[in-house]
Amino acid sequence: MTTMSAREIALVTLDDIEAAAQTIARVAVHTPLLPFDALAERLGVPVLVKPEMLQRGGAFKFRGAYTFLSRLDPQTRQRGVIAPSSGNHAQAVALAAKLFGVPSTVVMPTTVTTAKRSGAERLGARIVLAGTTSSERLEKALELARLEGGTLVPPYDHPLIIAGQGTVGLEIASDLPDVGTVVVQVGGGGLSAGVSTAIKGRAPSARVVAVEPAGAPKLSRARATGRPVRLDRTSSLADGLLAMEIGQLPFAHHQRYVDDVVTVDDAALAPAMRLLLDRLKLVAEPSGAITVAALLAGVVKPRDGRAIVAVLSGGNIEWDGLSELLPRA
Prior knowledge:
single chain; alpha/beta; Rossmann fold; 2 domains; 4-stranded parallel β-sheet; 14 helices; 10 strands; disordered N terminus
């Protein structure tokens, strides 16, 4: 696996992602590409979705979490793992820890949704609540790691996490070699970094577009500045995409492999969730549906008549959340 030096950031490679794919092959779901005719009719090109809500743990995060835990020394792993997370990473780490038979602690925001907290609890994780921002969660997780000796599992800024998440892109390129555009959400950047790396390695003519909430434009700001920039605040219904700053390692991948980044207003999220539920019978959380929202809003347009794949990153939302949001659509 590639590493970072003081002078240069070494990027995760296609070989790294393929190695991660072998690691998770027996435990993770190879999610399908599903035709989305309702969007294809609107856009005039084939549109497919990659439904990671069908992944174990309800989101793509299991891929990176299991990859990370699999590379830990067994004695180190036995001491337990700690994960700062708004929800999906917590569930993924809890599930991976359960499969390895080791204890897990997850540090979640005080505003965590019922679905995400109860999901981690069902998987055996100890829950610790800390603040509302990613930095507050990370600070608490680091404190617990120092006091208790567990290993911190980073949510996105680590080569093993990026390699694991990159298996999403590997599967897309394998199932649809002539894909024209891949639309992927960006929070801290692990998924978009891994997917873009895999797509450019396997389908180099494809375009990769990253999508983030208008209320959390950390990648847009970083690309405008040329380096990661910490936002003063973030706000969006897409609670899984509210990182205050893009990760250093993910940003290096974005600069090389992501063709464009766009933002989506919250008002576009509920219609996208409703369309996915009505036409594909898929339950997507706001963060998961933001790629479809970008297509519906017209901020990502077809190119050359080639197929578009929208990654649906997760579906961890409780009924109360759905019943509140969907009438807005």
